[in-house]
UniProtKB/TrEMBL annotation:
<dbReference type="Pfam" id="PF06835">
    <property type="entry name" value="LptC"/>
</dbReference>
<protein>
    <submittedName>
        <fullName>LPS export ABC transporter periplasmic protein LptC</fullName>
    </submittedName>
</protein>
<dbReference type="GO" id="GO:0015221">
    <property type="term" value="F:lipopolysaccharide transmembrane transporter activity"/>
</dbReference>
<dbReference type="GO" id="GO:0005886">
    <property type="term" value="C:plasma membrane"/>
</dbReference>
<dbReference type="InterPro" id="IPR026265">
    <property type="entry name" value="LptC"/>
</dbReference>
<dbReference type="InterPro" id="IPR010664">
    <property type="entry name" value="LipoPS_assembly_LptC-rel"/>
</dbReference>
Length: 186
C-alpha cells in the first residue's frame, strides 16, 4: 500500500515540476510579445536627400550617418554624426545649416540641432549657438540658448532668439554687442 502512494507522489511531483518549468517558458514568451526592440527601420552610412516642392528643390540634406525610427509610435530620424543642410527659398536664395548632431521628429515637424550649430545666409548673416530648433511647417528657427549673430551691421551676443529661415524677421532677447549705424542720434 505504501508503494502506490510513493509512485503517486513521484508522478505528482514530476507533473508539478514539468508544469512549473512549462509555465516559466510561456511567461517569458508573453513578456517578449510586449517588448519591442529599439532598432532603426533604416540605417544609412551616408545620406544625400533632396527635398522638392512642385519640381523645385527646397532643400538638400547631407549626413554621414542617418538612423530612421519610423517604426515607432513617435517616429523620428536621428543624425548622430551631424548634418549639412542647404535650404532654398522661392527665389533660390540659400541658407546653409551645419550641426554636430540632429534629430527630426516627424509628427511635430521640428528638428533639434545640437552642437556647434551654424547658420549662414547668402546675404552674409551668420548665427552660431549650441542648440537650435527648426519648425519646418512655419520655417522658423528658435532657441533659448546663448547665441552670436554676425551681419553687416556688426556682431551681437545674447540669449534667446527666434527668426525666419531667410533672416528677414529676427526677434532676440537679452542682447548685447557692437553695431554700426547710419543714424547719428544713437
Amino acid at each position: 500500500m505504501n508503494l502506490p502512494k510513493r509512485y503517486s507522489l513521484i508522478v505528482v511531483t514530476v507533473f508539478a515540476v514539468t508544469l512549473f518549468f512549462g509555465c516559466e517558458s510561456n511567461f517569458k514568451e508573453v513578456q517578449k510579445i510586449n517588448f519591442s526592440e529599439f532598432v532603426p527601420a533604416t540605417d544609412a552610412d551616408t545620406a544625400n536627400i533632396k527635398y522638392t516642392d512642385s519640381g523645385r528643390i527646397t532643400g538638400v540634406l547631407i549626413a554621414r550617418k542617418m538612423l530612421d525610427y519610423s517604426n515607432l509610435d513617435f517616429p523620428f530620424t536621428e543624425f548622430p554624426k551631424g548634418i549639412d543642410v542647404t535650404l532654398y527659398d522661392k527665389k533660390q536664395k540659400r541658407t546653409f545649416i551645419k550641426a554636430n548632431y540632429a534629430i527630426s521628429y516627424k509628427s511635430t515637424q521640428v528638428i533639434d540641432l545640437i552642437g556647434k550649430v551654424k547658420i549662414t545666409s547668402e546675404a552674409g548673416q551668420i548665427l552660431e549657438t549650441e542648440q537650435l530648433y527648426f519648425d519646418q511647417k512655419n520655417e522658423w528657427f528658435y532657441t533659448e540658448r546663448k547665441f552670436k549673430l554676425t551681419d553687416t551691421k556688426g556682431v551681437s551676443f545674447g540669449q534667446g532668439i527666434d527668426f525666419s529661415k531667410d533672416f528677414k524677421v529676427i526677434h532676440s532677447q537679452r542682447v548685447n554687442g557692437e553695431f554700426e549705424s547710419s543714424d547719428e542720434k544713437l
